Amino acid sequence: MLIGRKADIAPSEITPRAVWLDRRRFLGAAGGLGAGLILGGEAGAAPLQAAASPLSTGEPKTPKEDVTSYNNFYEFGTGKSDPKANAGSLTTSPWSIRIDGLVNKPGDYALEDILKGVSLEERIYRMRCVEGWSMVIPWIGFPLSEIVRRAEPQGSARYLRFETLVRPAEMSGQRSILPILDWPYVEGLRMDEAMHPLTILATGLYGETLPNQNGAPVRLVVPWKYGFKGVKSIVRISFVEAEPRTSWMTQSPREYGFYANVNPAVDHPRWSQKTERRIGEGGIFVKRRETLPFNGYADQVAGLYSGMDLRTFF
Ligand SMILES: Nc1nc2c(c(=O)[nH]1)N[C@H]1C(S)=C(S)[C@@H](COP(=O)(O)O)O[C@H]1N2
Ligand SMILES: [Mo]
What residue owns the CA closest to ligand 1's atom 23? Predict the structure, then answer.
């Protein structure tokens, strides 16, 4: 997926850690908001209370160090270590999500208000990146369906379109001279995919608030799809009639489709999707694992696609 050279960032462009820590504290205090959900990332990974879920996998979890240091988040550069190195500059409070399009309840909703109305759950999910690596991540989140219901979609709303924040001052990849992706990062889901109980919005991992590099303060998690569907740092959810055009489809329509269901039977044009490397499992001599249809969630989700040719709708 690497398509641009890593952005060169002058050290002066990076907000010193002490400064952004203070700014967060100030915002948290000034807004009179509960600190637990406000402080994110390394600044103050606050403990989150969450119920366990029967939808969790019992597989061994990928070490937290790997989960938080090996990422894709192109807004902060295209290297795997760039998100952790550069995302500290992102201010995640205050945060609001615009809900618009074909709904009866459009508006700009403060994240803390959204969170008051939901109960958090821990969901331990297998995750599979299109590049051939996988992890098992204990997310903290709530079903996306709760947001959909509250928005009161109209009958003509068939898809959800998600946007990530655009804020070049805090997102070094968005200042890159060489184009990386067209911003904002856009992803989409069909309505039934959005309503599926496995689909969550995550606000934390490993029992703590989400680190910035993992998409703070709120990101999508769809465990049967390739990782790029998991749009981070969401600021807008639009309910639309037509299939949204995603950033990756714009970048390379031959390589990245709208559905992006994990499928070992359909190769990426430049590499096989039959196997994967589980991050954290040790050296180069560790055997690659076989990739499972729908990332092992076929029992729960294959029915959503019955009658569809998954080579055409990849
Ligand atoms: N906004 C945004 N979201 C994004 C990306 C990105 O570049 N920008 N990368 C995606 C890809 S390709 C993957 S594999 C996951 C990786 O991050 P995670 O381990 O925190 O899920 O984030 C996804 N979400
Ligand atoms: Mo990915």
Answer: 228
User: Ligand 1 centroid to 31 CA: how many Å?
Assistant: 29
Q: How far apart are the first and last CA of the chain?
A: 16
Mean pLDDT rounded to a whole number for the chain: 89
Q: Whose CA is nearest to atom 15 of ligand 1?
A: 227
What is the C-alpha to C-alpha distance for residues 133 and 291, in angstroms, rounded to an integer?
A: 10
Which of 109, 95, 92 has the alpha carbon at shortest distance from 20?
A: 92
Mean pLDDT score, 128-153: 98
- pLDDT tens per residue across span 82-111: 999 999 999 999 999 999 999 999 999 999
Give distance in angstroms: CA of 225 to centre of ligand 2.
10
Is the distance from the beta carbon of residue 226 to the nearest atom of ligand 1 less than 6 Å? no
Where exactly are the structural domains of the chain? 15-305
pLDDT of 26 above 50: no
pLDDT at 19 > cutoff 50: no
Two structure tokens written together for 280 = 């954290």
Cβ–Cβ < 8 Å for 256, 130: yes
Find out whether the beta carbon of 129 lies less than 6 Å from any atom of ligand 1: yes
187 lines ligand 1 (CB under 6 A): no
82 token code pair = 């760039």
pLDDT tens, 182-231?
Answer: 999 999 999 999 999 999 999 999 999 999 999 999 999 999 999 999 99
The hierarchical CATH code for the domain 15-305 is 3.90.420.10
The reported pTM is: 0.88
**Dihedral (CA of 164, 168, 173, 178) sign:** positive
Neighbours of ion ligand 2 (CB under 5 A): 72, 129-130, 227-228
Query: What single DSSP character describes residue 123?
Result: E
Atom of ligand 1 nearest to the CA of 220: 24
Q: How far apart are CA 162 and CA 150, in angstroms?
A: 17
